[in-house]
Task: structure prediction
Amino acid sequence: MPRRLLGSTNQLLPNEEEVLQFLLPLSADYPGIESWFKDKVVPGLRKEERYIHRVERDGHLIGVGIAKNSATEKKICTVRVLPAHFGRGAGVRIFDNLLRWLDDDRPHLTVSEGKLPAFERIFDYYGFSETSQRSGLYVPGRFEFGFNENAWPAEKSDDGQRR
Result:
């Protein structure tokens, strides 16, 4: 049975539950990712302000990207590709689809210092510009690198974090 969203009459659809389970390994870099997904992404999907792009191989989910297109921000929120599929085009496919949905070739995004090496090549490919470094944005003592921030003002959630 799909999970009931906190404070909502909406339920997670099976494909949303699958995406959430796929993203949970990111919780070390992004504490609260489950709440963010339920409280921000799913309602945003219902309002068509969020988009999820899935990449599958042989019927299995191997990559996910989530984008946000609101009145105040165009952002690539999350991208995850299974390590066994790095360097095989799934990341480019995700970015291409998110950029097309956003109708923007320079959306805002952030990446944690530990994940930056995995994304540097793709950021170079798209010509993304590093615009900030913030310590403790999501994890105390860990840097988060911002890209393309000049185009869109940062929108902060109730907990003060950019999402």
Remarks:
- Residues 1-9, 152-163 have pLDDT under 50 and may be disordered.
- The first strand starts at residue 50 and ends at 57.
